[in-house]
Amino acid sequence: MRKLLYFVGVVVLLIILYNLFSFSVDETKKAAVLRFGKIVKLVEEPGLYFKIPFVQSIKYLEDRLLNYDIQPREIYTSDKKRLRIDNYALWKIGDPRKFIEATGGSIPNAQSRLDDIVYSDLRDILAKHTLNEIVSAKRLEYLQEVTKRSREKLKDFGIQLVEVRVKRADLPAEIEQAVFARMRSERERIAAQLRAEGEQRAKEISSAADRDKAIILAEARKSAEETMGQGDAAALETYASAYNQDPNFYRFWRSLESYKKSFNDGDTIVLSTDSDYLRFFESMGLIK
Questions:
Q1: According to CATH, what is the number of the domain 66-171?
Q2: What are the residues whose beta carbons fall under 8 Å from the beta carbon of 28, sequence distance 6 or more?
Q3: For position 246, what pLDDT does the model report?
Q4: Which of 66, 117, 142, 264 has the smallest number of CB atoms closer than 10 Å to its CB?
């Protein structure tokens, strides 16, 4: 039993000595070794390290990319529009020594510096542009300018600013409805103009179609009349040619056609016996 107590005591003593004389740094951290509050060593690689107990202390710092959601604030554009900007910043600790000296190694203190500097630069740059420019694709250029300007200022605090982005850009609630109504009125005006232009174009197309229709019909009638005239001329020419070949037969055939059309069952026609119309009947011995 006594041996077990000695063993447990030795293990506890070793653990205490280990914690007093060593410290570890993982891949997500950096560490600063402080002696009476002053930095004597910076550890930026993960691993196991040693320190002097009671004299040296360890300050751990984040080595990851951090996201700070900046408090939404209002700015004024160059065309006197009030805009509420909701943005965020991506950052990391660039110089651990400067970071500890300027902020005490505190993330909240660093975010406070970020808030002040980024908002100041964002306000100054966006105030030079109109609302339409800010909400257009050009805003990416403006944000790059904000990032560049703020990055230089934050170097003095050991902060490496990676990027500034805008999540939302909203008009204040009291003027949002007025702006929406004006935008709607403008869109309705454009729609009415487009409809009027469409109707005018439709009328032009309809008039052109009617004109083309009249021209096509006139040309078709002209062509039909010419074709009919040519057909009649050809028929007359054929009839004349046939008549000239045998005038007596042609007169006989024409008379038969006339009789066929003139006489039906039960019809009675009274004519003089010397009528030319009955000459072929007389020649055939049908009339005495």
A1: 3.30.479.30
A2: 62, 63, 64
A3: 66
A4: 264
Cβ atoms of 157 and 98 within 8 Å: the answer is yes
Largest CA distance in the chain: 175
Q: Chunked in runs of 10, what are the mean pLDDT values of the chain (288 residues)?
A: 68 66 82 83 82 80 88 82 84 89 88 90 86 78 90 92 83 62 82 89 88 88 86 77 69 69 65 62 54
Pair of tokens at residue 70: 């900046």
Query: What was the pLDDT predicted at 18?
Result: 61
Strands 73-76 and 82-93: antiparallel
**Hey, what are 130's tokens?**
């109109």
* CA torsion through residues 64, 70, 76, 81, sign: positive
The DSSP result for 130-192, as a single string, is -HHHHTSTTHHHHHHHHHHHHHHHHGGGTEEEEEEEEEEEE--HHHHHHHHHHHHHHHHHHHH
